[in-house]
Amino acid sequence: MTRYTGRVYKPSPELKAFAKTKILQAGESQELSFTLTPADLSSFSTPTSSLIAEAGDYTVKFGDAQETLVSDYNYSRTKKMR
Predict the structure, then answer these.
(1) Whole-angstrom Cα distance, residue 35 to residue 76?
(2) Is the separation of the CB atoms in 5 and 63 below 8 Å?
(3) Tell me: the pLDDT tens digits for 20-63?
(4) Cα–Cα distance between 52 and 66 in angstroms, integer?
(5) Which class for 53: exposed (0-12), middle (13-18), buried (19 or more C-beta within 10 A)?
(6) I want to staple 51 with a disulfide (CB 3.0 to 4.6 A). Which of 11, 42, 46, 71 is the partner?
(7) For residue 2, with 0-12 CB atoms within 10 Å meaning exposed, 13-18 middle and 19 or more buried, which class applies?
(8) SS3 letters across the chain
(9) 10, 24, 32, 41 from 76: Cα distances, Å
(10) Please, are residues 63 and 70 in contact by the beta-carbon 8 Å criterion?
């Protein structure tokens, strides 16, 4: 996941979830699902000593390795959450 703006430091990209498939045969696929919570979007703010999920634009990327992007999803948060 990548966040493009914000005041709280957030490394880019961040691994937020992963899953292992069964052993797949050539041409076979398997559907996986993930749920991202507000805590997954949060970063620790030292001045407030709290987790903050800042408003802004995020991109969630899906792939079989960091170098092999299969799909991505753009997401915008309109409100900051603590």
Answers:
(1) 16
(2) no
(3) 889 989 999 888 888 888 788 888 888 888 888 888 888 888 87
(4) 26
(5) buried
(6) 42
(7) middle
(8) CEECCCCCCCCCCCCCCCCCCCCCCCCCCCCCCCCCCHHHHCEEECCCCEEEECCEEEEEEEEEECCEEEEEEEEEECCCEC
(9) 16, 34, 23, 11
(10) yes
**31-35, 55-59, 70-74, 76-80: the lowest-pLDDT one:** 76-80
Tokens, residue 63? 């792939």
- 70, two tokens: 């299969």
Give CA separation, 68 vs 42, 57, 61, 62, 82, in Å.
25, 22, 10, 9, 33
